Amino acid sequence: MTMDMFASHDSTDALASGLLRKMPVSWVESKPVQYTLLVGENRISLNEKIGQKIRLEFTGEIRCLHCNEITKKSFGQGYCYKHFMALAQTDSCIMSPEKCHYHEGTCREPEWGERNCMQAHYVYLSNASGLKVGITRGGQIPTRWIDQGATQALVLARVSTRLMAGLVEVIFKNHVADKTNWRTMLKGTADKLNLAQERDRLLALAKTDLDALIEAQGIIAVQLLGHGDEFSFDFPVNEYPEKVTSFNFDKDSNVEGTLMGVKGQYLILDTGVINIRRFGGYNVNLY
Q: What does DSSP say about strands 254-263 and 266-269: parallel, antiparallel, or unpaired?
């Protein structure tokens, strides 16, 4: 990076200035998801900005969202290297919950693990770019699905811990994807699926392995749900791109265009898309 690349304009006329963070969402059934852009202490309602021109200017400064120290590079969506390697929430078992090692006494932050991992979790089916399986804490329903850009979601099982959720997810991964294709998700609304039918199909396919896990762990640890309401989500998007081009603040300090919509953690502009969560801790000016 060169200093010239990050030569900023006068920030005094900026609508907001500060560190980017993951966008909070609010949702009421049958209405579009409401998005808020966090820029420092500023909260910008994005739904009201759809159809308007916006510009995000990266100042060249990155700070750790945990300690607020300046870092040359962001790790794990917003952390300095020290805390990326030290915090429980950035450990490898967060991405691979079946590798949870709390029970071995080696959790980086046992108290954090108690609050976040040793709690009830849910295994679910969702549809963002097609059918996938995933896991989330109860308190993250429905935020987790919205952050993925899912238009449909349905709970498969309630389990006692994050580890149990990971073990159940691994079983289902033998029969269904566990990743969202973000480019496909950003090109439009996924074809509607019969999630109840898919749930029943997958429970049948995974029955032998699930029965073995329940026998080993106990019925309280893993509770399969053959019923439950489906969630559906409508995202505030006026127009989806035919071709998805992504912005990267590490290569270009300016992101500018007409805001066409918001989906998942992405701003969709007529000039490209940007994953706001990826650039947590980046200091920007919003115009």
A: antiparallel
